[in-house]
Amino acid sequence: MTEQGSSETEDRKDDHIRIVQERDVETTGTGFEDVHLVHDALPELDYDAIDPAIEFLGHELSAPIFIESMTGGHRNTTAINRALARAASETGIAMGLGSQRAGLELDDDGVLESYTVVRDVAPDAFIYGNLGAAQLREYDIETVERAVAMIEADALAVHLNFLQEAVQPEGDVDGRDCLAAIERVAADLSVPIIVKETGNGISGETARKLSAAGVHAIDVAGKGGTTWSGIEAYRAATANEPRQQRIGTLFRDWGIPTAASTLECVAEHDCVIASGGVRTGLDVAKAIAVGARAGGLAKPFLKPATNGPDAVIERIEDLIAELRTAMFVTGSGSIDALQRTEYVLQGETREYVEQRTSSEKQLDS
Amino acid sequence: MTEQGSSETEDRKDDHIRIVQERDVETTGTGFEDVHLVHDALPELDYDAIDPAIEFLGHELSAPIFIESMTGGHRNTTAINRALARAASETGIAMGLGSQRAGLELDDDGVLESYTVVRDVAPDAFIYGNLGAAQLREYDIETVERAVAMIEADALAVHLNFLQEAVQPEGDVDGRDCLAAIERVAADLSVPIIVKETGNGISGETARKLSAAGVHAIDVAGKGGTTWSGIEAYRAATANEPRQQRIGTLFRDWGIPTAASTLECVAEHDCVIASGGVRTGLDVAKAIAVGARAGGLAKPFLKPATNGPDAVIERIEDLIAELRTAMFVTGSGSIDALQRTEYVLQGETREYVEQRTSSEKQLDS
Amino acid sequence: MTEQGSSETEDRKDDHIRIVQERDVETTGTGFEDVHLVHDALPELDYDAIDPAIEFLGHELSAPIFIESMTGGHRNTTAINRALARAASETGIAMGLGSQRAGLELDDDGVLESYTVVRDVAPDAFIYGNLGAAQLREYDIETVERAVAMIEADALAVHLNFLQEAVQPEGDVDGRDCLAAIERVAADLSVPIIVKETGNGISGETARKLSAAGVHAIDVAGKGGTTWSGIEAYRAATANEPRQQRIGTLFRDWGIPTAASTLECVAEHDCVIASGGVRTGLDVAKAIAVGARAGGLAKPFLKPATNGPDAVIERIEDLIAELRTAMFVTGSGSIDALQRTEYVLQGETREYVEQRTSSEKQLDS
Amino acid sequence: MTEQGSSETEDRKDDHIRIVQERDVETTGTGFEDVHLVHDALPELDYDAIDPAIEFLGHELSAPIFIESMTGGHRNTTAINRALARAASETGIAMGLGSQRAGLELDDDGVLESYTVVRDVAPDAFIYGNLGAAQLREYDIETVERAVAMIEADALAVHLNFLQEAVQPEGDVDGRDCLAAIERVAADLSVPIIVKETGNGISGETARKLSAAGVHAIDVAGKGGTTWSGIEAYRAATANEPRQQRIGTLFRDWGIPTAASTLECVAEHDCVIASGGVRTGLDVAKAIAVGARAGGLAKPFLKPATNGPDAVIERIEDLIAELRTAMFVTGSGSIDALQRTEYVLQGETREYVEQRTSSEKQLDS
Ligand SMILES: Cc1cc2nc3c(=O)[nH]c(=O)nc-3n(C[C@H](O)[C@H](O)[C@H](O)COP(=O)(O)O)c2cc1C
Ligand SMILES: Cc1cc2nc3c(=O)[nH]c(=O)nc-3n(C[C@H](O)[C@H](O)[C@H](O)COP(=O)(O)O)c2cc1C
Ligand SMILES: Cc1cc2nc3c(=O)[nH]c(=O)nc-3n(C[C@H](O)[C@H](O)[C@H](O)COP(=O)(O)O)c2cc1C
Ligand SMILES: Cc1cc2nc3c(=O)[nH]c(=O)nc-3n(C[C@H](O)[C@H](O)[C@H](O)COP(=O)(O)O)c2cc1C
């Protein structure tokens, strides 16, 4: 996910994909296990007329489901991106690319194709690019526009992954001036930008800063799903870096649980994507009930993608059917209605939210 | 429990009974595990004088226990219904029939007998019929009266089972206009109507609508007992329908826990039956303490019923003895007194109820 | 513990002792696991000067520890009572006898000796007799005085055990007029009376009635220790009484947890003994911190008693040393000080007490 | 940790070290598991510029990490102290010595060297001495100054370990007049004093008394790490002292959890060290977020110390790297900033703190 603009980046990308496929890289505790939607025994709806479509940054999506930013930047990933893009295109949902840094910095047609394949097979889908916040700081706006142009992106995701960088021995751990860079790009870029975490969540305070900086959407990517600290701990073990392995393991579970992060962000921004451990259409429904515009999944799409577009489509249709079922039994004919459905918060997530809400109140005063 | 008015219905009924008998079709978490009745060390009562009788829709029942709607519509179920009805009759409790759709739509004496046997062996018992809300919408009032007449019903239960329908590949998932149909039948039918769920519970909001529609009683049939999503997941597996199996499994635990649903409904209606995972006379006592008029059980009666009336009577007498013991040690000489006994709510059920109560307050204002 | 005034009583007593010794007859969850005394790192006390003595109903006890009512009424229990009484005498703590009904109703010197042995070996100890509330109702005051005289009792415990009676096939389940009988005996008897439960606890409401009836002390005997429902379930199994076995098992855990019951009772009476699952001197300390005057134990003394007085003394000295240690590290030089020490309530017990306190408030208003 | 001023002390010290190394002497439940720091996805900091240095009692420390008081007083411990001191010196953190009583009372060069070695190898480090509160009471100020001079101490830690003393058969259990002695030494000694527990924590009330007595710092040494009751239980088992073994085991978990104790103490004193079960740099970060000035660890340094200075340095650098990572991802460039970072309290620690805070409020009024 991170890269130093060399073929080193390419190899790391390969490492990451392999670790994600072979090791246990998921945590638990998104907080959605503490969110209970209230059953509506009398939905007064026709299931077949339920419409999960949303408008997102001016585009119509058939369902509030995002294939989260994952890959690109290595020839091996071309097939994965082709499958994901074709599936996004056929089902009408959004898809994010993995970091485009390698595409901007390496002069290699094979690498480039791992990105461009996406727009080739999905001319009309909502596709968004990806760069790290640290890159924004270094690139001028023309370079950022090249990333957009590379895939005719509908939007650009800017990822925040400072914990991962801190666990990587070679990580870029200078976090200064990123907010200013984000603000600049948000103002000048030809497409809207989505700021996203990568598995540790976004707090209300950060969401407030991002809102003020003019960011068009926030993707929380909270705790409970893929853990990049965990992934880097495996890499550090292989590289015989015991201290980094130790830190990666210690921070494996670090972050704001996705449900809590979503609740914090929706108080500050009106276009929030909930991701990080979202695994079913029911999770998507819960995310929307607590205020998100959509839910995103990364890892669950990786294995189907290696099996081709049909497997990805199958998975998306599962998710949509699960979501529609949740909509049906909460009496929600549309995503707008689902956003207003009743829910109950329990356990640790309730404690988390109660305390954060009262301390946020203190911040406001 | 659902049926498309053909012999397909008959076969499905058979499938269901078999699955219920052979597989794990029960969830946990009715919420009664979080309800603690307060011991009265000095009950100042004669156990033998404790009277668990109630008045229900104008009839006297010897105890606040319902044999919930289960079966009928297949020749194989005649013996089951005969045993249940004889037991209800001898012990003086209420009994519900399974859905009568097959009885109305099929022209088959064997099928019909599976219903009529009930009144034959229990001329004086409180027996109530059963139709789906979707059927009410389609039938005119004369057809509904035929269902009543079929068994000289004392009341008609109208079941809501939209989640089950959504899990069934062949399910009827049009939920529109059911409330209006219920209102119409409640006004016009010759006997009172009981609206019931089938394992996912009824919320306060729905109870309010049902009250306004003139429904005479509500049976919550909440989460924690028999799970129809779970049952349909098994059927889907057999039918090689992986998506439906997946959804059935995902929603296996869906619903409002029975104790919470009871607390929500009693705030909106004064005649509430608590069912869904009620398994002992102590559960019945708890249900009444939190405000229900009676408790109902379905699955626990199925196996005894296949062994004949005596086994069912034995089971009912167990339940009554358990209930009377709970009445004794809470110092409750009557069901009215039991309804006023002290209780404590803990754990998740307390969280659930606290939040729903405060949000209901918001709804009211 | 119960008896019908015949040698049947004697046999049952024997059954009970055997079951208590051989089977699992203890529950968990006294609530003391949720009570945390606050450490005092600077106690400013000399451990050797800590004085755990209390005054109890006009007598001085060396420590606030009661050997709870257990046995008598069978020749086999004479040795047990001798050991307990000798230990009580040597250590200066209080001892209760088991029910004296057999002693009053049977004309048998061996049976009588099982009681009288206590005063023989412990001429100066605080010894209290025991009768059931149901007996008080039947006996005139002279008969009750005979029970007192039998052992020159310093007080009389009146036990409430209606749940046990309800589980016993042959139980006395008429609970009427017990309060009036208690009030009469409290007023007329030559010695004070202690009303005690036997493992299911006493609520605030009951404590209030007992206070008004002039009872001199209340022994909560709450949930969390020996379970008489459980014991009777074993007896019912042997006697082939499946329904009673079922009820005994269902109500095995019934009752108010000892810590919660203590908190409820101390709000209504100023002389409360906490018992039911008290197992260590630390439990005794917690009981006192939440407001009890003393803690009592039954089952833990049974096995030592079968090994003779020294084993019982050893056990009592263990308890006192544990209690003194708790007093030391809470900076409590006396039982009075311990009663004022800081504590924290957590978990289910906190929930229990919070709700009961707020509902008691409603009762008051 | 305790000593009677004879070679008996020396042997016990040896016993203790051996038990700590060979047996399970750690409890769980520091409360830090319930403290959740809030992730800052946009730290706007350069990791390399993060400065974990603190000022402590007028000295600059490179990081807020204390090697807690452990050993000395036996020739075998010289090597351990040498390793710890060298590591403290090279990394710039603070180190406490074990109790100096043996050094003051035994006339033995080998014993003395086990202390003096520390200053020999760490001429500039912040090193603090150690005496028990009971000793302060017995020694005149000149004797206490000898302990300071022995190692040219920068401060003196006074330990409170009354629970341990109560568990030891030979313990000194007279706790009187310790506060006065502490007050006297705090006023007269040439260096500041730190009052510390040894694993059971310090309450708000005690912290208030210590503040009033002029103590310069408080080290909570709360529950959750090394348990001296547990250690003494092992010793009692070996010494065939069943009652002491029983008490040690019963009080194994006794005490105020470290996080709760820290929160109580920081309300009363502005220089608090959190210790007792601190195991990682993330624990140190949490301790600081809830208000501590620094975190201390004892047992985790023991094994590395037996392997020499490099192993200890390695461990310290791990801790610092973990702490810096926590600072980075909470956006805290300095320890001051970390003290203001947002956190959430959950579970038992939240319950503990809520109740203690409200009762403290009562104390104040
Ligand atoms: C294999 C893989 C590669 C990823 N690469 C990127 C990336 O390049 N850029 C990015 O912003 N996030 C990346 N992510 C993070 C995801 O976009 C997402 O935020 C995170 O994995 C949480 O979602 P999940 O639990 O559904 O996997 C990647 C995730 C995975 C699993
Ligand atoms: C075998 C079986 C058949 C059922 N059939 C019906 C039915 O036809 N109509 C209906 O309203 N409910 C039906 N139910 C649902 C029950 O009435 C009840 O609401 C639900 O099972 C929860 O109760 P339980 O947990 O005690 O089984 C059936 C339940 C079972 C177990
Ligand atoms: C063997 C045994 C016999 C008992 N007999 C009596 C009795 O005769 N009268 C009575 O009031 N309680 C009796 N009890 C109840 C105890 O006094 C006590 O209230 C109860 O056992 C809870 O304490 P424990 O958990 O420490 O055993 C008996 C208890 C035991 C274990
Ligand atoms: C081997 C060992 C020896 C100790 N000796 C002393 C001592 O002499 N004086 C003292 O104040 N504390 C002593 N302690 C207690 C520690 O300073 C510390 O307060 C306690 O162990 C909790 O920290 P931990 O959980 O990190 O071990 C000792 C601890 C250990 C493990």
Outline of the structure:
Chain A has 365 residues and is of the alpha/beta class.
Mind telling me which CATH architecture of chain A this is? Alpha-Beta Barrel
Largest interface: A-B, 28 and 37 residues
Q: Look at the structure and name the CATH superfamily of chain A.
A: Aldolase class I
Major beta sheet, strand line-up of chain A: 4-5-6-7-8-9-10-11
Task: Report the count of strand segments of chain A.
Answer: 12
How many structurally independent domains of chain A? 1
Which distinct ligands sit in these coordinates? flavin mononucleotide
Helix count of chain A, per DSSP?
Answer: 17
CATH class of chain A: Alpha Beta
Structural features, described:
Four copies of one chain form a homotetramer. Chain A is α/β, with parallel strands linked by helices. Chain A has a single domain (12-361), classed as TIM Barrel (Alpha-Beta Barrel), CATH 3.20.20.70. Helix content of chain A is 49%, strand content 12%. Chain A has helices at 7-22, 78-91, 101-105, 109-121, 133-138, 141-150, 162-167, 178-188, 204-212, 228-238, 242-250, 258-266, 281-289, 299-306, 309-329, 335-339, 347-364, and strands at residues 35-37, 54-56, 59-61, 65-67, 94-96, 127-132, 155-159, 193-196, 217-219, 272-275, 294-297, 343-345. Chain A has an eight-stranded parallel beta barrel with strand order 4-5-6-7-8-9-10-11, surrounded by eight helices. In chain A, a hairpin with a 2-residue loop joins β2 and β3. In chain A, α9 packs across α12 and α13 (281-289) packs across α15 (309-329). Residues 1-5 and 360-365 of chain A have low confidence and may be disordered. At the A-B interface, α15 of A face α7, α9, α11 and α17 of B. One flavin mononucleotide is lined by residues 1, 16-17, 20, 68-71, 98-99, 130, 157, 159, 196, 198-199, 221, 225-226, 275-278, 297-299, 302 of chain B.
